[in-house]
Amino acid sequence: MLESALFALVALLVILDPPGTAVIFATMTARNLPAERRAMAIRGCTIAFIVLMVFALAGGWLLRALGIGLPAMKVAGGLLLFLLATNMVMGRTSLRASDDEQRAAAATDDDISVFPLAIPLLAGPGGMTTMVLLAEQAKGSLLQLGLACLALAVALGATLACLLAAPLITRLLGQTGGHVIGRVLGVLLAALAAQIALDGIAQSLRA
Q: How many domains does the chain have?
């Protein structure tokens, strides 16, 4: 039980990439006042938590309604996460806010808490898929599902802390440091994705 909770926390932290997201957030909110940045960070993390919780609680029902089994979800989710990991390692952004979207957000004083911060930077395809997988792996265990939700809260709490400290993190890491961390986390995410897909294949063969 503790091992699955730790796996959930590590997977979510790798996907959310709090330091890298903080660097992006600092760039997008360069023209905003500190109070505005704080409000957007809190609002963005709250919205992302609600979205991901909906996928955790209702994602399994949707899969069953579509006749999709857990092994198929594991394989598909593993492939999707592997694609996200490839983007992180190669420095691409097809599954997160694109460079053009980030520049557009940085050039305006509009509220970015919903887009692109909450979706897709925080609650993107990778996070949504992961929460559905974690909920399905709980197999009806309220304790295990609760631990997965707790892992989500902790991961988003760490992300919020990094967003609030975004200017400091940007000064310490710089753009290059943020990219390096993102690529290292991408390698870890690739390994996690491969393990999820392999588990799905093995479970399908046993069925």
A: 1
